[in-house]
Design a protein that fits this description.
Elements lengths: L5 H48 L6 H9 L1 H20 L38
Helix pairs in contact: 2-3
Amino acid sequence: MFSLSPIKILVVVAVIMLLMGPDKLPEVAHRIGAAWRAVKKLQERVEAEVRDVIPDLPSTGDIARIARSPVHLLNQLADRVDAKEGGDAAGTSATSDASTPLLSPRPVSSAPPPVEPGGSPPDPSLN
């Protein structure tokens, strides 16, 4: 697998500096900086447009956290379903907070699905 350690990055930068020379290096650095700013502006513009269309969209940090740990999202959804079922059983309806995720939770059983030895749990959507 390709990995960049700090030593490898320094070697690449040193080679680039030798190839560019001292006269072209500031111009290249300026172009790279301008391209980076353009990409950041494009990202901010696209994010603003998406947030205008979908105002209930979670923050970018929340989306990144969900992408890194989808199990945490599933645990949150299961907790909300459990809380809602508990609220309905007591005769009160559970209120949802402003950070409701985009996915609507499906009722899940409190017991985990059985796992076959050496296998994965069955897909609950097939039931």
